[in-house]
Amino acid sequence: MKIQIKFAACALLLATLNPQLSTCFAQGSLTPPGTPAPTMKTLDQVEARSPISSLPYTISQPGSYYLTTNLTGSSGASGIIISSGSVTLDLNGFALTGVAGSTNGIRVSNVYTNITVRNGTVNGWGKTGVYAPLAVSSQFIDLRASDNGLGGIVGGQGNNRIRCVAAYNQLLWLTSDSGSTFQDCTATGNLGDGFDASNGGQAFNDCTATGNTNYGFFIGGWGLVNKCTANGNGSSGFRGGRGARFSECHASQNGQAGFDAGYGNSVSGCTTSDNTGDGITVGYRCFIHNNECYANGAAVNGAGIHLTLGGSRIEGNHVAENYYGIKADVAGNFIIHNSASGNTADFSITGSQSIGPIVSGDSMITTNNPWANFSF
Fold it and tell me: Which residue from 62, 165, 292, 321 puts its CA 20 to 30 A from 95's CA?
């Protein structure tokens, strides 16, 4: 205690003798410098987005827009009209629901580029869920279009579709113009085709068409289809236009053929089973290679592989338990390295063909012919 008192006395004496020393013990002004300012950015500063809280709504300026809740349309009107390019519309997980007499859920009104619509449901509209045939270089992501009076999602040139679903629409589908891609999309229960790419030049990967009343996939010229599935559609699972390519796809239980290959098509590494018609119906100058065709055509005398025209190469396929294994109606095809088992007729060949010998029987294979086909 005595030490503390002595220290305080000395400090007071020094401060008295030297005024500058006294400022060393000052604590500064207690008056605030001004009104405190916010230190965090607002949502508009982070990402400027415009809310949509009622319908109908027209987007007339580039920018980012989002739904704030589920919204219901009105008779005689579209839900959201996009009248600008460079627009992102985020449904934010909500639904745009139509009513009797409504038109389109989302409509792009003219030729615009760089439009993105994503993440939500568009259902029950009188016409089409998303009607954007004039949208160019645009994308549609994580959308579900169902129970609409016409189409599900209709797009334009150079569009991308990612994880979209079209279900139980009254006419179509998922459709788009040339130069478009479809990734991991599904079309089910639509009145019409599941996917309509009749304008050609489109690519499909990991997509599924199930239970549509017409074709599962209608592919125009030069389309590319990889690892896709068509099951239980009313017509053929896959229908190919000029130069279409199908690889590692599966077609089963369709009302006609699994694959209806047109002019210059390639069907490679695919499987077909239990289709009412042929496993693969082959048109003109096609390449049918390394496919498996099982139990097709039993009700209509169809074939695992059915050549209806000439000029095609049929190589390395396995056909089993179809009515016909490989059936050629006309001359002029090249048929080698195929195997057939358990068909009502393994090979039914009409006309002059370039064909390897058909080796049959259950004994040891003794042929040295490198082009041989086998029946067992």
Answer: 62
